[in-house]
Fold:
Amino acid sequence: MYVATKGGERAIGAAHAWLAEVRRGNPDLPELTAAQVEAQLGLAVDRVMAEGSCHDRGLAALAVKQARGDLIEAAFLLRAYRTTLPRFGASTPLDTNAMALQRRISATYKDLPGGQVLGPTFDYTHRLLDFCLAAAGGSPGGAPEAEASTAPSPRVTEMLAREGLMQREAPVEAEPGDLTREPLSFPADRPLRLQALARGDEGFLLSLGYSTQRGYGGNHPFVGEIRMGEVAVGFTPPELGFEIDLGDITVTECQMVNQFKGSRTEPPQFTRGYGLVFGHGERKAMSMALVDRALRAEELGEAATAPAQQQEFVLSHCDNVEATGFVEHLKLPHYVDFQSELENVRTMRASVEAGR
Amino acid sequence: MSHDPGYNFAYLDESTKRMIRRAILKAVAIPGHQVPFGSREMPLPYGWGTGGIQVTAAILGPTDVLKVIDQGSDDTTNAVSIRAFFRRVAGVATTERTAEASIIQTRHRIPERALREDQILVYQVPIPEPLGRLEPRIAETRRMHAMADYGLMHVKLYEDIARHGHIATSYSYPVMVNGRYLMSPSPIPAFDNPKMDQMPALQLFGAGREKRIYAVPPYTSVKSLDFDDHPFRPIRAPQTCELCGSRDTYLDEVLTDDVGGRIFVCSDTDFCTERQAVREAAE
Structure:
């Protein structure tokens, strides 16, 4: 009789064994190491750290390997590990002004103190498949080197603010909330919104940011500045009472400059959209800055009519681990509910038939 | 049995368990009210029962006997997986017998056998908000709960009747708890709703992704919404169980070929096995 009621445990075991086999792939080829992933698939590692909201290149690389390159699955692995870690405190705010820059560009000025630094970017590559890379073995000739510039590179938005043209952010003394410890409630303040966006899905934020450009909550953005490089992470242990340097991490920061016509209380000035992500994640940082600015609609007295401006919509749906879980759970058995729907539809059809 | 020494008993650290227990106590004190809690990221995906798993982890003790069912059955893959998770991280005894379990974690069903005072039923909940399909904004539904403003739901049910002649909701059928809070019973079939009313066992509901816990204390009134002239009617397939002959339990329809062949069997596999044994003994 066809009633499969036993065997779940064995089937799961077999599925896991098969998964391990396909993960390894053709055993005639050398196995990929986590160190190779970390060194050569660096942007995948960066994205997993950002969306897994855990800065650890080695673990992120391991997650990419374990997830067979599925980056959302890798972010999930990293998040699940992150939850088990003890939380011993919060760092002091990162000083991105003191960043050791690898890349720094402004779209609002032709030249500016500190200069424009292209850095390792795809921007002006011609997207032609490089068949030399397919024939492994060659190593690149090496990039030309120069003395590191010691000239300060002040932030573009700060220079505008000194002139009174850029709205300054009101400093908040209160300890920012932590959405991984306390459930998000609405309306959420900006620190919480930025937290959610920083670990949000790159694709989701990209499309939402894009929608603001196409008129759904647009706010005329300029890239004031994108900078990428290493910043020091400082921490003040309570037993020491003074700040110590925990080490450097690479981050990408984007500050968008947006028009603001002014309101009854505010003069016309520029307003800021802010994005910050772990690693080299320019697309994500820019998208985040667009969405951050869109979510400020209410506080700036703008009509919040577009999806990108509605914080409950954006913040409830930007997390890809949550989203993938709920979308994919539809493949779990639902036959009990389906059965009651079957009976329901049969009853409805019978009453339609009877009424004819 | 011992648990995996790499993790705290039942996976969660003790301060997280305490936070969840506080949410549970609050939920028990306000039957049917959704209590926000600091849901953690679990090593199983959202949608697979992370809320129920966290609730179970928070209340589980070393002497508990755990039963896990999905669709009424102990052997659906996800039930097997969750049971294996707790065997590994808590080392507790597990069972497939409803009568032997002290904690039963379930997805989509309430066991057919009546539960006792010394048992706890933990539901996995995908969408805790019963008003969610009518009003997606949580900020707004919280206000509606606070004001007990449930007119929208009554209108929806009325529209069902006007359009179809009867209420067209067959699962996740909304209930009123203790005469105050509208509550989602989780996606159990409406057939199971009456079992919630005045149940001697404590009923706990965990929604991990939505970060909510709610509860129905023992012997609490749970009424399915209806109208005087359109009373609530539980739906089940009208057939008889092929295996145990039951005519009053919830049945699964199983296709046996592609030309319309089908049989009906109990969804609650433990209950069905028991009835089969009774029937065999009688023969």
